Amino acid sequence: MKTQTRLAIAGQRTDTAYNAIVPPLYLTSTFRFEGMGQTKGYDYTRSGNPTRAALEEALAELDGGAGAVAVTTGMASISTILATLPAGARVVCSHDCYGGTERLLDHLAEQGKLVVDLVDLSDPEALTEALRKPVDLVWVETPSNPLLRVTDVELVCSEAKAAGALVAIDNTFLSPVFQRPIEFGADYVAYSTTKYLNGHSDVVGGAIVAATPELNEIIQFTANCLGTVAQPFDCWLVLRGLKTLPLRLARHEENAHAVARFLQDHEAVAEVYYPGLEGHPRHELAARQQDGFGGMVSFRLAEGADVAALLTGTQVFALAESLGGVESLIEHPATMSHASMREEARQTAGITHDVIRLSVGIEDAEDLLADLTLALAAAVSKIERVALVA
Ligand SMILES: *Cc1c(COP(=O)(O)O)cnc(C)c1O
C-alpha cells in the first residue's frame, strides 16, 4: 500500500471491542489484571498504552523501522537517545542544529557526562576529520535548522559505521513522507511530532524510530525507565494529524517553492535558503535523498533592512516559534528559536541577526506572497530613507 493509504487507515483495526473506525483513546493510567501475572497486554500506561502503541506502530511502519516509542517532546526524543550512551561518550553533532539540542549537549558536556563536538556535517571533509577520534553517536539534522544545509545521510552512516558509531537523524523538518533515513543506514530517527507529524500546532510531542529490534528494545526500556513516554491523548491527536500528512506536506512544499522563488528576486533579500531552489549548493543531493524539499524557507535580509519592521509587518505569517503547522509562521532565529544557543556556536553556524526563518503553511500562495510583499516593503523603506539622507 502507498503511504497515503496506509496513513488514512492507520490504527483502524485496533479496536477489537466495537470496531471503531478511529482508534479509541485509552485515557487510563492502569489496567486490571485478569489473574496473577495475567494481563491483556498492558499493565500501566508508562510501560505501554494501546493509543500510544497505535501511533508507534504507524510511525515505525512509515520509517521502515523495527519499532518506535512516542515521547513527551522532541527534546525528550533526544534526551532519551542520549541516555542510552555510556558515561563520557563522545557525540558529534551538526553545528547548526536545533537550539535546544545544542543547549542540551552543551549542558551534558559541562556536567562531564558527554564529550561533544559540533561540526558542519554537510562538509564531507569536516565529517571525516570529526570521526578520526573515537565516537559513540553522530547526531545529524538534515536539512538543518535554520539554514537548511543538507547532509549526505548515506555518507554519514557509512563513515560512522566504519568508526563504530551509531547514527541518529533528526528528521523533524521533512517527516518520513519526504525522507526515510533508515533506508540509508541510520540507527535512530528522531522527531519533534509537535511539527509536521501532528501538524495542527496543538500538541508538543516527540518520537524515536529504531532501525533494529535490539535498538528498539533499548529505547523502549530507556523511555519507560526515564518516564519520557507520551500521554495517550497527545498520541491520539498526533495519530489524527498523521492521516493528512502527505496532503499537508504537498501543499506546504508547493507554497514554500513559491515563497522561495519570490524572495530570490526581491531587492530586500540578500540570500535565500531552500534546498528546492536549483541554486542551493546541495540541491542535487537533496533531490537524491529526499522525496520532497519541505515547507521551511530561510533567508538573509539585505544590509540595512529593518528586521523588526519585517517581523511585525506581516498579517498572515504570525510572529511565533515552532513550525510545521497548517498556519504560516515567521521568526527570528537569533533571538527566538536559537536564543538558547551559545553566542559563539550561533556565530559559527551563521545564525546572525539578519536571518529570518519561515514555516510556510497551507494557505493560498497568493495571500502569502502579498503578505510578504507588504512586510518587505516596510523593512526596506528604511534603506531608502538612509539612501536619501546620504
Ligand atoms: C522543535 C524541534 C525540536 C524540539 O522539539 P520539541 O517538541 O519542541 O521539544 C527538535 N529538533 C527540531 C529540528 C525541531 O524543529
Written description of the protein model:
With 390 residues, this protein is of the alpha/beta class. The chain has two domains: 240 residues, Aspartate Aminotransferase, domain 2 (3-Layer(aba) Sandwich); 144 residues, Alpha-Beta Complex (Aspartate Aminotransferase, domain 1). It contains 14 helices and twelve strands. A seven-stranded mixed β-sheet has the order 1-7-6-5-4-2-3, with helices on both faces. The longest helix has 25 residues. It starts with a helix and ends with a helix. The model has no long low-confidence stretch (mean pLDDT 95). The site of pyridoxal-5'-phosphate has 16 residues, from helix 3 and helix 4.
Keywords:
38% helix, 390 residues, Aspartate Aminotransferase, domain 1, globular, five-stranded mixed sheet, seven-stranded mixed sheet, Aspartate Aminotransferase, domain 2, alpha/beta, binds pyridoxal-5'-phosphate
